[in-house]
Structure formats: C-alpha cells, structure tokens
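Need tokens for this chain, all 319 residues.
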Amino acid sequence: EAINKTLIASILAIIGIFQECCYLADFKYGYDYSWFVQKWKLITPPPGTLMRVSSIFMEPSHLAISMAPAMFVSMITLLKKDYSYLGEKASIVIIICYILTFSAVAYIAITISLSLAFFSVKKLRKTKYLLSTLLILIIFVFVACCCIPETKKRFDDIIKVTSGAMPITNSHGTVYAYASNAFVALKSFIKNPFLGSGLGSHPISYVAFITSNDASIFRGDYAGINMADANCLFLRLISETGLFGIGVVFYFIIRFFIKTSTNKTLQVINNSILILFITQLIRQGHYFYNGLFFFVWLYYFAYTINSKPDLAIPETKRH
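Here are the structure tokens for all 319 residues:
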C-alpha cells in the first residue's frame, strides 16, 4: 500500500516536471493537456518565465492542495534521515514539482510545513538550524512575491485593494474571486451570525448580495466566479454555518492535532493531513473535494490510535 501511494504521488510530480520541460522545449502537446484531460486549462505564462505546472489537475492550486500531504511527508523524509516515508528520490521529485506550481497556496503550505518540521525533527529545534531555515524561508517568500509575475500581481492587487488604492472590480481575477466571495460571506454572516444561512446556500447568497446594480462589487466578466464553493472553505463555512460551523471545525482541528508523539509515523500522518485542511480552508471550498471526509476520519483515527499505545502502528524505519 505504501509503495502504491509513493508511486501515485511520484507519477503526478513527474508529469508536472515533464510539463515544465516540454514548455521550455516548446513542445505544446507535452505541456498543454487540454486535448485529453477534461476541464484542464492552460495558464499561459508571461514571456521569459517558467510555466506554472498543474500536472493532470485543472489548475496549479489544485495540484498544490492535493499534493500538500505528500509535500509535507517528503520534507520530513529529507530532514529526518532515520525515517523513510516516501524515499529520498521520490521526495525530491515531489518537492520540485510542488515549487514549480508557483502557487501562493503552495508556498503557504511550505511555510507551515517548515514550522511543523521544527517540532517533528529534533535537530531543527536548535537555534542555529531554526535561524538558517527562517532565513531561507524569508528569501523564498520574497522571491515568490517579488520575482514571479503572477504571484507579484496578486500580491500587489491585494495591497492596493485593502488600502483603497484600487477598486475591487479592477483587481486580478483571483483577488476579485476572494474579495467578492468574502463580501457575500460577510453579508450572510451578519444576517445569520450563529448558524449561517444553511448548507449549500452560498450561491443563493451570492446572487442576492451581488447584482449588476452594485457597480462597486459587480464585475460582468467574472460574474459568479467560484460562487459554488465561496473560493475557500473558510468563507463558505462562515457563510453557510456561521460561528457554530467554523467553531466546530477549528475545535476538531486543534483537539485532534498530534503535537508530539513517540510514534513519529502517526504524527507525520496527522500533521500532513493538517496541511491539507489548512490549504482547503484557504483556497478550496467544496466539502467533498479529493475525498475530504476520508482525511477527516484519518486525522481523527491517527490521534485516537496514538493515544492508545496498544493499537499503535509500527514506525517506518530506514534500513
């Protein structure tokens, strides 16, 4: 089973790296998969820049969310030399592909993964390792925000919109999707703060609160963008379930999080799923996306088994 999981994650990553290589070689059928993958769309990069890889997923952010647990496990595999969860070669391939998504949610996931690694890997708790890693992280975030055109555009638009220097309707499509759905979620929350407007109600709220009569928020070419899932799970929960729903979700995540464990295998499983939860709260709002509820149960059972040593699964040692 472990070999199958390693194989699947590695194949997806290899396809992503192959995609980048084909783009550099100008071989269209090697990087543009719209001719055989349903709903797949090509995001054409600016001239002279690398392509944002998405492998077989519809968007780079979808790849970043789906591969978030594998990325975290890959990072732990490389940092903790006495454990082998995926294998060093597979881990390197997965991390390279993950970076090549040039997705903001991917870099957030990397940042959180490094933070969790401080607690999972003892040698990283030492001051010199902590400072070195933080320095690398700061440089990495700076390069992502300032040197990657697509990311820089979104970052600049967020600053301009929040400061009032730019109207929401003139911002980048992704920024507008967040802003418009946040506007709807806030309106829905104000109307029904404790229980929300009900499961599946966000699209209805979107239509009710954003109309062509409101020039400050309505944008014809992006009308209804991501209204089905509110663009992220956090906004959808606020809109549809109110304080009760978002409270239950955060309680669950915090309550069943494994901070430290003598069984590092269970801790890594639990922590990798935490990364998935966070990325979906930030970017993906569908309740059943990528079998979310399977990971909810796995997160819970990893904690439960860890609290009962007689049920704990053996650790994966490197031989």
